[in-house]
Structures are given as structure tokens and as C-alpha cells.
Amino acid sequence: MFKWGIIGLGRIANKFAKELKETGVGELAAVGSRDITKAEAFAKEYGAARAFGSYEELVGHGGLDAVYVATPHHLHAYCTSKCLEAGLPVLCEKPFTINKHELTGLIHQARVHQVFLMEAMWTRFLPHILYLKSLHDSGRLGRLLHLRADFAFKGKERASAQGVSRLVVNELGGGSLLDIGVYPVFLAQLLLGVPAVIQAEATILNEIDETCQVILKDAEGITAYLESSILWESDTSAQLFYEKGSVLLPRRWHERGEMIIKPENGEAEIKNWDYPNRGFYYQIKEVQDCVQAGKLESDLMPLHFSLQIMDTLDRIRTLIGLKYPADLMK
Ligand SMILES: NC(=O)c1ccc[n+]([C@@H]2O[C@H](COP(=O)([O-])OP(=O)(O)OC[C@H]3O[C@@H](n4cnc5c(N)ncnc54)[C@H](OP(=O)(O)O)[C@@H]3O)[C@@H](O)[C@H]2O)c1
Question: Is 188 a domain residue?
Fold first, then answer.
């Protein structure tokens, strides 16, 4: 069985571990936390054989087939780098890093050490997104003319209920763009490619963007309007307007398999995909298959694509004047 280690035992690590346990796709072999008591409790709950009281100990232990990095964004580069140095394949949470400079360093390291590396953009592997991409590429609805996608939830409210949350702390990479705005940017670039022009506006308070609005335009003038917010709850939908029809992903487009395809001259087609658990299964399987086949990156979520997304996030942050401590290290 494929042996996973997890670094950083927060909300998403729990979901990942639950999915491993319930689907049986891989084995949770070891977990690393800054707190050994927390690591032991987590290991017990999800059946991991080993628990470590530091991230470095987990990396040094060996015996793992891959590590899932699930810390706040500001630690992604450090933790991933430690794993790569030790020759451990890595699945690192989104946003891959704080900026392009950090990600360029990780990609270089992965190539030098010949180790697998991938951003945990799990949405890319969900069957409804695979379908959307093939529908887009097929040209059945003609050329894409415009795309609109958002991701908004009351993260700020949740953060204050929890006390201090990574979501609202600049030093931890807080704000809406890096945390959830990365999903609409991913979708736009999956379908439109690298933008030629970017416009952006944000509401910045206490050094984090509470909301961010972005327009991307490609070389042919095709536009995407993208929005993220940690102030309000939206349907988190996506809409694509083609020459010969439209496609709507009505709610939680990044995780729910619902799609309405409306050809201009024809009946609307409603499609549904049912995902057991959260749907992490598909990205977990992708990592396992790649590592077992000796591949160094995924064909569906290659490193140059993550780098293009990170470059766009950097360009947006320059436009809205949002900086993080890691930007000063360039
Ligand atoms: N794929 C998805 O659907 C999805 C959803 C939510 C979040 N994410 C991503 O996953 C990452 C973690 O998010 P999360 O929601 O799980 O965060 P979280 O609940 O705050 O957990 C993060 C964990 O990181 C560790 N950590 C290390 N330094 C920390 C610090 N200074 N402050 C707080 N925690 C620190 C802690 O683990 P220890 O105490 O064990 O060291 C903490 O439990 C983020 O990069 C986020 O973007 C992905």
C-alpha cells in the first residue's frame, strides 16, 4: 500500500486523512505536527503508525512514498523544500507558495533531486472538471468568449469565531486571493491560458485582501471576470459563454459535480457527478500513479502550469498592492 505522511495537522489534513481511511486508496503511515500530543491523537484517530512532534522529524524518518504538506501558505515552501532535499515526493496544498520566486526555487530543487512534485489543486482531477475541459477543447460550443467565476465565503466571520485564524493574518499568507481566489484563476488559465492583460481591484484591511476582483484578458481579447471574498457567502459558481451556447456550474463549482450545458439551438443538458467523500480521492490517485510510474510531475497539473498561476497571482498582488514577508526575500 502507498504510504503517505502529512505535515501540519489542521482542518484540511483531517479531511485528507479521513478520505485516505474511508476510500482505502492509500495508507496514512506518519504524521508530523509542532505538537506531539496533537500528532499522537491524530495518528490514533486515522490509524497512522508513527507520530512526530516536529515536521523535520517526519521528513528525517523516511519510509514514506509521499508527503502531503498542509500547513498555512507561508510554510509551504519551507516544508516542501525539506521533503525534496530528503528525496520525498510532495503534494503541496494550494496556493503552492506565497510567490513565483519561492515556487521557482522548489521546481529547481525537485528537478535537481529528481523528485515528484505537485500542487494540491484537487479540483483539476474531479471528473466534472475533466469533462468541462474536454467539452471546451472539443469546440462543440464554438470559441469561448467570456468566463465568470467566483469563490466567496464568510471566512472573516469564521476566523473571528475561532480566535486567530491564518485567513486574516498577513504573516501566514492570509486574504482571499491566495486562499480561494486561486481557484477561479486556475479555472480561467486552464481554459484561456496565460493572460496578456490583468486588471484588479481589492479591499485591503489590516494587510490582507478581504475581497478581490480580477479581469484577465488573453491576446485575442477574450475575458475572464473573477472574484474572491472572505466577507460574504456566494453560490461560488462559474459560467462560461461560448459562441454557440453556455455552460453553468451553479454552486461550489470547484467541488460539486453539477453542470448545465445550454447549446444555443437545442435542449439544455443537466449533468451530475456524485463524489463520495470530498473528492480528494482523484488527486491522491494521480500522485500515487505518477510516483509509482516514476514520473516527476503530473500531466494534468504540471509544474509549469502551477508556475503560470503563481505568476498571475503575483501580478494581481502587484496591482492591488498586497505584500507578504516572503516577497521581501526575493
Ligand atoms: N484543498 C482544499 O480544499 C483546501 C481547503 C482548505 C485549506 N486548504 C489549504 O490547506 C492549507 C491549510 O489550511 P487549513 O484550513 O487546514 O489550515 P488550519 O486548519 O489553520 O491548519 C494549518 C495547520 O498548519 C500548522 N501550522 C504551522 N504553523 C502554523 C501557524 N503559524 N499558525 C497556524 N497553523 C500553523 C498547524 O498544524 P500543527 O499544529 O499540527 O503543526 C495547523 O493545524 C492552506 O494552505 C490552505 O490553503 C486547502
Answer: yes
